[in-house]
From TrEMBL:
It comes from Naganishia cerealis. It comes from the Eukaryota. This is Uncharacterized protein.
């Protein structure tokens, strides 16, 4: 009885925290994505940011300019941020999404660093996989890397041999859509990635076009992910902070 009361107390007084891994090949835009999130969403305990959509207000243009001026170096270790999720007015998400913090881990995408990714798998509630839509020569490598992630042995529960990957949502972002040479979503889906749908059948996944630099599709993408994290709550409980 005490445990039930204490767990209910925790659930009603603390915020839910979901851990999200940001993966993808080097130069895909992972750290740029993280930096933009920092500008759009406040850390826990701070008031809301003014605007989030590129169309919402001119102030967002200065955010984009600030981001462009920033020198982002290739990631060698990890970058971590925690933000307070706030649904946009357009999303009409219910109040159950008002109590969520998202912790992001941005890891280096260079080939030599990818073996470190699997250490984070069991602690994550969701994955964002970023694809450089202009880097056509490496689409196959993107596909293979995604397959390696989903088939990694660290997802397997050693005790009961169950696959813990099932239901961990994967959001794939076709990034750099602001560039003229970017391959669009239709071409991406019918090209190398055509087998993705059947390969990821058991997984909650989505491929969306974005420009993380120009804030195109960023808010909508995050809102899709949050709805899926909450949907998967019975399988993978959030932390309470
Ligand atoms: N035009 C354009 N450039 C982008 C976009 N996103 C990232 N970039 C550029 O792509 C380059 C690499 O971005 P990063 O964020 O460092 O890439 P990363 O995935 O973190 O790379 P690693 O840390 O090496 O794994 C930078 O020059 C960014 O400015 C985008 O949406 N549009
Ligand atoms: Mg990086």
């Amino acid at each position: 009885m005490f445990h039930l009361a204490s767990s209910l107390y925790t659930q009603y007084t603390k915020r839910e925290q979901y851990n999200v891994l940001i993966l993808g090949l080097d130069n895909a835009g992972k750290t740029t994505f993280l930096e933009h999130l920092k500008l759009l969403y406040p850390p826990p305990g701070e008031p809301p940011r003014k605007s989030r959509k590129s169309t919402e207000a001119n102030s967002d243009q200065s955010t984009i300019q600030a981001l462009k001026a920033k020198r982002i170096l290739p990631t060698v270790g990890q970058n971590t941020i925690t933000v307070k999720f706030e649904a946009s007015k357009e999303s009409q998400l219910s109040t159950q999404y008002n109590n969520i913090n998202l912790k992001f881990w941005d890891l280096g995408g260079q080939r030599s660093l990818r073996s470190m990714w699997s250490r984070y798998f069991t602690s994550c509630h969701g994955i964002i996989f970023i694809i450089d839509s202009t880097d056509t020569e490496r689409f196959q490598e993107c596909y293979d890397t995604l397959m390696e992630i989903t088939h990694d042995l660290s997802w397997t529960n050693q005790e009961n041999n169950a696959a813990e990957m099932v239901n961990v949502p994967i959001l794939m972002l076709a990034n750099k859509q602001d560039l003229p040479e970017a391959v669009d979503l239709v071409a991406l889906k019918t090209g190398v990635f055509i087998r993705l749908v059947s390969e990821l059948e058991a997984t909650d996944s989505k491929l969306l076009p974005v420009s993380v630099l120009e804030n195109q599709g960023l808010v909508e993408s995050l809102e899709w992910l949050v709805t899926r994290l909450v949907y998967n709550k019975p399988n993978k409980q959030p932390q309470y902070k």
